[in-house]
Amino acid sequence: METKKALKFTLAIVAIIVGVTLFKQFDFKNLKFEQPALAVVYAITFVGTVYFLFKGERRK
């Protein structure tokens, strides 16, 4: 049980960091990312992290 809490905490920290970085990469004036290839990597990481974070919550 303790490892599940640690894993959830770690995934939450990763999701926050990647989400903020992805938000900072987006240029709202031109509606484009500064580095599109890196933004794709960030987006895949963010979606995967959020998926694994909430995967266990659906079963309960």
UniProtKB/TrEMBL annotation:
It comes from the Bacteria. Keywords: Membrane, Transmembrane, Transmembrane helix. The chain crosses the membrane at residues 7-23, 35-54. The keyword Transmembrane helix applies. This is ATP synthase F0 sector subunit C.
